[in-house]
Amino acid sequence: EAKSAGRNTQRFFDPQMQAIVNARANLESDLRQAIHDGELQVYYQPVMNGSGSLVGAEALVRWRHPARGLVMPIEFIDLAEQTGLIVDLGNFVMRTACEQLALWAASPSTQALTMSVNVSPRQFHNQGFVDEVLGIVAQTGANPARLKLELTENLLLGDVNETVNRMRQLKERGVGFSLDDFGVGYSSLSYLKRLPLDQLKIDRSFVSDVLSDVSDAVIVRTILALAHSLELEVVAEGVENSEQVDFLVSNGCKRFQGFHFGRPVPIGEFERLHGFASFRPA
Ligand code: C2E
Ligand code: MG
Ligand code: MG
Ligand code: MG
């Protein structure tokens, strides 16, 4: 048919592509609305020491969607990063986590706990980042020495001098830095010397097969030895059983995170599981 053929030539996308584009656009406007409407929630996962005591928590964002239920970060962090929504999202998580840290500081049993917050590349490189973090720390009364910002290696694809400068500005105020998912990114080992880091987190993928895969065992041992010679603290991520703990302990690891010790949970559950409660003025 001549008429419909003419119309068809104006169709640039095939229907599947169009569906993907529409779904993304919907997710983006949903997420924008979610940040505004308070649908984001912060979960906390415990970080333990070798004696099995709680030493801190990692803040992990969740999206409590009215229709879809609990949405995990894998479904929306990349989109937030691509659209710039990560700045507002990140500030929300930072503020919530710092408020919690300030509450913990008020009680002797929790005042030594640290709080780790994930920071994505676009958030870190955003113009106002340093001032925003310092502003949140000041407003919430959180102790910056108990705050750890988790960066990933892909952050280093940007200007490294600029990255080091920003890190230094925050470090001068006491804020700590951790390199997350270590071992799976792009960075060369020379960055470990250049960046003012305090901690490395061994990526979960190495820890999960450490008992069955000889190369993963070698990699984990090597990371532990390297980090210790650079005087960096190491956290093993994704620890799921006591055999993994034994392997890690015998190779000098002193910090652990994973389902074996506790899953990420809302603050009330976190505090109940660990036997304390924040004092919240009525
Ligand atoms: P991550 O920072 O490496 O966080 C650890 C992830 O591993 C979390 O997934 C946690 O639930 C999961 N995990 C911890 N222990 C275990 C374990 O023993 N077994 C298994 N299978 N998984 C474990 P989650 O919460 O889904 O977060 C995924 C990623 O999303 C995070 O990886 C982080 O890169 C990103 N993310 C989460 N919250 C934020 C945020 O507030 N800001 C930014 N920029 N990124 C975030
Ligand atoms: Mg992390
Ligand atoms: Mg990680
Ligand atoms: Mg990650």
UniProtKB/TrEMBL annotation:
Source organism phylogeny: Bacteria, Pseudomonadati, Pseudomonadota, Betaproteobacteria, Burkholderiales
Origin: domain of life: Bacteria
Domain EAL: 24-278
Name by which UniProt lists this protein: EAL domain-containing protein
Organism, as annotated: Comamonas squillarum
